[in-house]
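Quick one, probably user error.
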């Protein structure tokens, strides 16, 4: 019996294949010092540093004219990994990447966004602010051909199951990977959305990083441990 059990265990191990260890978390550089907004630029009415985190907040009587952003002025990364911890209380926010600043509206951005909202309807999706809109919903792997609209390639998991991994009013780990024309967004260790963008006229291969404060109902976004690794 012991030999049989041992044989079954060995057979199961081979059937499952060897386990691949987690990737070593190396090469990341902090782009927020945890104390000041040095290197970041935004409307001071909406941004501050508190308890080691960047805080963006709106109130009923303190609203921007349009969505406004705190922009990192340290460069326009092309191929990179970005890791942040965030906590959203209230309405809507997002982390911009490979984005541009609109020349005619101060602190407004256009480009890819790791979207998030207080009710977790859009959290985890790849959105494009002021451009093509919804590119990959939570649980979707999509493709955009040249001059085409997003098309579904396959599933990354049940959207409801993925939603259950998101921590409402608590800290979440966001990981964005941008490599060539491929974008991957992870939350709390799970791939939430993925996009291959071959729309050469509209895609961006490099650009600014920013944090969004959204026009509308009161909201508060807190972001800390912001780290960037250029690939």
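Nope, works fine. Designed sequence:
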């Amino acid at each position: 019996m012991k030999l049989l059990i041992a044989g079954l265990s060995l057979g199961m191990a081979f059937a499952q294949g060897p386990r691949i260890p987690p990737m070593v978390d190396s090469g990341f550089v902090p782009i927020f010092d945890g104390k000041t907004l040095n290197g970041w630029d935004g409307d001071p009415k909406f941004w501050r540093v508190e308890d080691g985190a960047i805080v963006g907040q709106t109130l009923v009587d303190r609203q921007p004219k349009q969505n406004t952003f705190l922009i990192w002025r340290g460069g326009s990364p092309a191929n990179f990994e970005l890791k942040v911890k965030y906590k959203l209380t209230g309405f809507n926010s997002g982390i911009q990447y490979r984005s541009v600043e609109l020349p005619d509206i101060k602190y407004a951005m256009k480009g890819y966004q790791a979207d998030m909202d207080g009710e977790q309807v859009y959290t985890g999706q790849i959105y494009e602010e002021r451009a093509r809109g919804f590119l990959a919903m939570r649980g979707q792997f999509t493709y955009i051909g040249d001059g085409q609209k997003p098309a579904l390639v396959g599933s990354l998991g049940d959207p409801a199951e993925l939603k259950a991994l998101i921590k409402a009013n608590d800290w979440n780990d966001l990981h964005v990977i941008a490599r060539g024309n491929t974008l991957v967004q992870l939350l709390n260790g799970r791939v939430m959305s993925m996009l291959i963008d071959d729309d050469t006229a509209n895609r961006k291969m490099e650009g600014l990083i920013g944090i969004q404060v959204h026009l509308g109902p009161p909201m508060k976004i807190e972001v800390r441990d912001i780290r960037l690794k250029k690939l």
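The CA atoms of residues 55 and 222 lie 5 Å apart.
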